[in-house]
Design a protein that fits this description.
It is a single chain. By secondary structure, the protein is α/β, with parallel strands linked by helices. It has one domain: Roll (Nuclear Transport Factor 2, Chain: A). The protein is built from three helices and seven strands. It has a seven-stranded mixed beta sheet. Strand 6 and strand 7 form a beta hairpin. It is globular and about 55 Å long. The relative contact order is 0.21.
């Protein structure tokens, strides 16, 4: 049994799955390839990307990154600097309900939990909670 469940009225499930996966690949491959066009295409302008981090004092903080920051950082090539030869991108589409999708992405560098929404411009990543993949150099 697949890890995802598609509940999409009057839409082809295979087409929806492909469009969601294309958005996720635009995001990951855009970051690691230094392609801000792909990154911008994948992100909703109001993206909230968060990670739990510990400061030097050991105090936990919630770091928040915006779509604007991600697009600019991609253009600067920040992702290209951390790109392994084999990204090993694994996409698990867990659920699609109407205009919303829940996806887990595991790569050699990051593990990310994504929420996507279908907009008039296609599927866009609206929320992202992430951490380095265990065992990665990050």
């Amino acid at each position: 049994m697949p890890l995802y469940r598609l509940v999409v009225a009057r839409r082809d499930p295979d087409t929806e799955r492909a469009a969601i996966e294309r958005t996720v690949l635009d995001y990951f491959e855009g970051w690691f390839g230094g392609d801000p066009v792909r990154m911008e295409r994948a992100l909703h302008p109001e993206l909230v990307k968060r990670s739990l981090e510990k400061g030097a004092s050991g105090r936990e903080t919630l770091r928040t990154i915006t779509a604007e920051w991600m697009i600019e950082a991609t253009a600067r090539g920040e992702g290209k600097n951390e790109s392994p030869s084999d990204l090993r991108i694994e996409i698990e589409l867990e659920d699609v309900l109407g205009e919303l999708a829940n996806v887990t992405v595991r790569s050699a560098v990051y593990t990310e939990y994504l929420h996507l929404a279908r907009t008039s411009d296609g599927w866009k990543i609206v929320n992202d909670v992430w951490q380095p993949t265990p065992g990665s150099a990050q």
